[in-house]
Amino acid sequence: MAQQQITMPVLGMTCANCVATVERNVKKVEGVDEAAVNFSTEKVSISYDPAKATPQVIIDRIDRAGYEVPVASIELPITGMTCANCVNTVERTLNKKVPGILEANVNFATEKATVKYIPGAVTRADMVAAIERAGYGVVAADSDEALVDAEKEARQREIRDQTRKLWVGVIFTLPLFLMSMARDFGLVGHWAHAGWVNYLFLLLATPVQFYTGWDYYVGAYKSLRNKSANMDVLVALGSSVAYIYSIIVTVGLLGGHVYFETSAAIITLIKVGKLLEVQAKGKTSEAIKALMGLQAKTARVVRNGMEVDIPVDQVEVGDTVIIRPGEKVPVDGVVVNGYSSVDESLLTGESLPVDKKVGDEVIGATLNKQGLLKIEATKVGRDTALAQIVRLVEAAQGSKAPIQALADKVAAIFVPAVISIAVLTFIAWLVGGAGFTPALVRLVAVLVIACPCALGLATPTAIVVGMGKGAGQGILFKNSTALERSHALQAVVLDKTGTITKGEPAVTDIIVSDEASEVSSRKPVVSRQISEGGNEPITNYPSLTSQPDSSFSILNSQFSILRLAASVERGSEHPLGEAVVRAAQAEGVTLSEPANFEAIAGHGVTAEIDGHRVLLGNQRLMEREGVNLNGLGPKVEQLQNEAKTAMWVAIDGQASAIIGIADTIKDGSKEAIAKLKKMGLQVVMMTGDNRATAEAIAAEVGVDRVLAEVLPGDKAANVAKLQEEGLIVAMVGDGINDAPALAQADVGIAIGTGADVAMEAAGITLISGDLRGVPKAIGLSHVTMRTIKQNLFWAFAYNVILIPVAAGVLTFFPGLPIYLRELHPIAAAFAMAFSSVTVVGNSLRLRGARID
């Protein structure tokens, strides 16, 4: 059976060790092949064999490990059931064919299905679609928003609980801390040194220790039960040591100072830091939440001849949807009536609206700016472009970048190492004669200041923010590996057709001969004059500035040539003929009906237009028909040197003009290539064209290296040759024949307007198809990797520097201030609380980074 993918939210993780614990436990489930936890989004992505494992078994394993997967339930009113067998069919359909459903039970008497499911992994629309495919119906509800968002509610409930515990901690810790400090600094009378005051401190510290700090004890227990150690172990151990020692002093078993304020402050400060961390982590995924929020809530469709507003998840493929000016496009579709401009910027990153006419595709969640559009729905629900983008980004955010491997290895031994250092610190100071209490204080400081959280958050927070920013710019990364590899690229291979060029021929020149029998007395304005032969090419085509002569008595004007040629090619399916017709339509030229049309294989076409015999084709056609070439031969060679196809136009036996046709350069291609070269990348163009044609196009766009006459099946081999030269290579393409090369390259980049198979093989997809997205994607990789390295440096440096400081290393430097030489556990707790917040905050800076 084919592997299935599922993503589950996981609550209760506090550090990188928790991530490792969840992954390790999930992988122990038989049938699970891969499990990757993203600490930033608090989700686990799992690949499993449904014949061996079920989501419920996986959830049970996560629960036993001490963490929580929130679930929700929903009731679906079923129609069309007639017997008990129908009940079995509906239950089997939901339980076996819809990933994300944990359990489905159908009550035949009430005709309702009660479904337990994983929020985010499945929607009501998915359930309804499966039931309808089985031959039954579901009574309509408002929308998926009517469902309880169990994941969101569970997270909010957890935040409310933690906030309540924090305030309890503040209420008891603040007076405890102030009274303790006042006593230590002699700001109050001798009464403060009475024995009962320590009992008062115990009374104030206990609710903080066992109510505010209870989660740390539970987390530590679960962690140790799983034979690992996480941040909770350090916090519980450090605060407990200070608390228990203070109790021993209070009851008189030992003499000395009590540290109730230390134990309480440690727990309260770290609770503050965790809440700030949770809020900051929530901001890292704002980009993907914004994408999800783009979806229209309702759609106006035509049903039974009437326009009705319905929830968007009830739109069906084939529905006619009406979109008024200023409304969002609710689903993907094709325009069947109307003309408008559509703002696609939030999905593609393109700032200018795109004109849409009959036959054009529109993307759901884009904004209709001006005219009224009627579209036929082609993709709805989970199949829309927006839904696929969201799934792709979420899956990519859940993947692990190779650079995270080092942090994971360190995190696996971090807590045991810190405990060992703390114990050694205690022994060293005790043996060194510092006394029990100073040694104990340093032990607590070492335990509390160590922060595995920063290590766990360094990579995933930057990945989540970076990929979210990319999605907003129309750049989709398939996984974190593609994001990381892109920053190390040395060469970028660009497929020519459809990538650098538009992939469809267009008229670029019309060169008219004045040696023909009839010479135009009114010449159009042109951008330059070619003296040789007196011919005038339109170098700024299609900006023709003269108007066509309505009588067409003057046959050799550019408009007349274009009109006659397009009239001959009217209805043609040949790409070159279609290009001529499109050019005439763009100029508003009225075409005539051809008579006596004849297609001559390998030569061209001929027809009578308005009483004139017109030939349109190659030079072989001219020679076959005995046409006078009128000195246009050199112009043909000139066009061919410019990588253009030359079409001869002959009227009544005289060669009247040459039409130049070429696959035109995409807007932005030159700019993109210039930016890639500025980044220090070697830019290579790959094409099946001959060397001369390829060199001409390369020179036009600024490419220095050309791989010409490459057969479709040899593209991957050519990429491999570049890799053999020691280059780290990206391949950019859009066609089916580009897929092997995209897979061969270190990073495959697919143009979004191309084939689905190309996008499947690529590590990066550019939604808009604009080549300028390539330097943006590479630039985004650079800034994201820089942020990750900064985060890792901070996480490692923080622990490497401050753990020795907490251990008392600076005591041997008497010239330093006392607060540096003697790091108090409260200061250690403060530093630890805000270390992970610093990492997340640094990642959030990516949202405003420039990537172009």
What's the multimeric state? single chain
Largest sheet: 7 strands, mixed
Q: How large is the share of residues in beta strands?
A: 15-25%
Distance between the first and last residues' Cα: 44 Å
- DSSP summary, beta strand count: 29
Please estimate the helix content.
40-55%
Write out the strand line-up for the largest beta sheet, numbering strands in chain order. 17-29-28-27-18-25-26
What is the average of the pLDDT values? 83
Write out key terms for the chains shown:
single chain; 852 residues; alpha+beta; seven-stranded mixed β-sheet; six-stranded antiparallel β-sheet; 29 helices; 29 strands; elongated
Please tell me about this protein's structure.
The chain is elongated and about 120 Å long. The protein is α+β, with helices and mostly antiparallel strands and 852 residues long. A hairpin with a 2-residue loop joins strand 23 (645-651) and strand 24. The protein has 29 helices and 29 strands.
Describe the structure concisely for a colleague.
The protein has 852 residues and is an alpha+beta fold.
Secondary structure topology:
Blueprint: E1 4-9, H1 16-27, E2 32-38, E3 43-48, H2 55-64, E4 72-79, H3 84-97, E5 101-107, E6 112-117, H4 124-133, E7 137-138, H5 150-184, H6 195-212, H7 214-225, H8 231-250, H9 260-284, H10 286-292, E8 298-303, E9 306-311, E10 320-323, E11 332-338, E12 340-343, H11 345-348, E13 354-356, E14 361-362, E15 367-368, E16 373-379, H12 385-398, H13 404-431, H14 436-449, H15 452-472, E17 475-477, H16 480-486, E18 491-495, H17 496-500, E19 501-512, H18 558-568, H19 575-586, E20 595-600, E21 604-609, E22 612-617, H20 619-624, H21 633-641, E23 645-651, E24 654-665, H22 669-678, E25 682-686, H23 691-701, E26 705-707, H24 715-724, E27 729-733, H25 739-744, E28 747-751, H26 756-761, E29 764-766, H27 773-807, H28 818-821, H29 825-844
